[in-house]
Amino acid sequence: MIKALIFDVDGTLAETERDAHRVAFNETFAEYQLDWHWSVELYGELLAVTGGKERMKFYQDNYECSCPKTLDIVALHQMKTARYNNMLSRRPIPLRPGVHRLLEEARHNGVRLAIATTTTLKNVTTLLEHSVAPEAMSWFDVIAAGDMVSAKKPAPDIYLYALKKLNLPADQCLAIEDSKNGIRSALAANIRTLITVSDYTRKEDFSGALLVVDHLGEPEQHFTVLAGNAGEAGYVDLNMLHDFV
Ligand code: XBP
Ligand code: MG
Known about the structure:
This protein is of the alpha/beta class. Helices cover about 40% and strands about 10% of the residues. The radius of gyration is 18 Å and the shape is globular.
């Protein structure tokens, strides 16, 4: 039996990367008078590096870009986080299909909920409050995020941290992810993983996934199976997940 579902955030709960994180980075670069601009395509490449601070440092070190000798990445990231949160609260991003339904089903059937994400904690709380429900923070027993661990995905640390806080063994949990870095992180922590591909991750390698679908699906909006076997199911629910384990 599954005792807990552990959700990734960006790309899994909502499509936050292209039109929110990316835009917040670009607005911050402009405000800081940095001659940087991350196009939709370039941002797709940069997503290979998880974590906003790490992504900016990687860009600074590996791309031909002009920047002052002393660039305060931490300050820049704080500005980006403020902009991103402002954006999420003014114009909430819709949850992906099936996310709200599965969260509610878990809550009402005693399956515990957790988050394991690379993004900053504040970004998670704002997304939950504005896109899920004002009290949605209380639905989750554990929110493992950002710098709570030193090694970000694909390292297993954030999932190991979530397991420790849940006080559950890996085989009683199931992770829901959208990216290769995410599944590598969850599998390295021995947690079985279901993938819902997102805008940027559709073509990634999801070897080891229980199932790869385009989204969690709804009774009126069935998913498409991209890898694995979902039997007769058209949407992900607890019955289906229990059958997997
Ligand atoms: C996705 C990420 C994050 C965000 C940026 O995390 O890689 O780095 O792009 O967030 P996940 P920050 O899929 O694990 O939710 O700028 O706050 O780091
Ligand atoms: Mg993700």
